[in-house]
Amino acid sequence: MKLIVAIVQDEDASRLVNTLMKEGFSVTKLATTGGFLRAGNTTLLLGVDDEKLSAAMDVIEHVCKSRKQIAASMPAMPAMVDSHGAATYPVEVTVGGATVFVLSVDQFVKL
Ligand code: 2BA
Is the peptide bond before 75 cis (omega within 30 degrees of 0)? Predict the structure, then answer.
């Protein structure tokens, strides 16, 4: 068995959960925050049998779209200071369709 940890954009999360459920996968949805953009994203946990791994990955790849976002990052030009007094400047980043980790599961029990 594998544990898929998939970090996806909030915009894709509902459709992804619906599609995965329709395909028979069990999903846990967590509200998370990206460290770089400091914006909300969604992390899904899926425990899947080894032979279903590629089907789950196909669904994730099909549903999740990459998008460009503007991030305020540091360091910055001195002229640009935000309301907290921190220096920032805008940068465009491409947020991926999904950031996916696949872990081997030693044990899966429901108690
Ligand atoms: P964030 O950390 O908010 O990052 C959003 C996007 O900002 C990233 O998209 C990437 O394009 C850009 N970015 C991140 N760190 C950067 C840096 N140090 N310099 C320049 N640009 C940077 P993705 O790579 O598609 O990542 C989307 C979200 O997936 C991330 O949100 C984070 O929540 C998660 N993530 C990505 N890689 C990860 C990793 N190795 N470990 C844990 N979480 C990860």
Answer: yes
What six digits make up the tokens of 49? 């049998």
Q: Which atom of ligand 1 is nearest to the CA of 99?
A: 29
Rounded to the nearest angstrom, the distance between the alpha carbon of 59 and the centre of ligand 1 is 21
Q: How many CB atoms lie within 10 A of CB 45?
A: 13
Mean pLDDT of 70-88: 62
Measured from the CB, is residue 36 less than 6 Å from ligand 1?
Answer: yes
* Nearest residue by C-alpha to atom 22 in ligand 1: 36
Beta strand segments in 1-111, E: 2-8, 28-33, 40-48, 67-73, 89-95, 98-104
* pTM greater than 0.85: yes
H or E element in which residue 16 lies = helix 10-22
